[in-house]
Amino acid sequence: MVTRVPGVPGVPKVPAGRRVRIALVVFTALLSSGVASAQSKPQPASRPTLEQDLAAITEFNRKYLKAINDGDIATLSSLTDEGHIMITPGRPPLIGKAASIALSVKNDVLNR
After folding, report:
1. What does the pLDDT look like over 28-70, one tens digit per residue?
2. What's the rounded Cα separation, in Å, for the pair 30 and 102?
């Protein structure tokens, strides 16, 4: 004899123990398909190697120091942001893009 769910025609009532087993099977199927994952994250592109990281850092430093030495304020500005901190010996740190640019402008004026 099949018991029907009240108010839902054609849907049989499933015993509690069987409902748990069905839920586990459905959850396992969803999990294995990736549907039940917490977030659907795209796979990251391949990560750079250590050598590539070091080369990128070296190139950034080269551009940064050249911009400072050449008084190239536009390039210096493009390489820094508001979280930028410049520490030089014997001076207080310069915090933020505006402070770095102001020092560059001041040095540029003094060196003319």
Report:
1. 665 565 554 555 666 677 899 999 999 999 999 999 889 888 8
2. 57
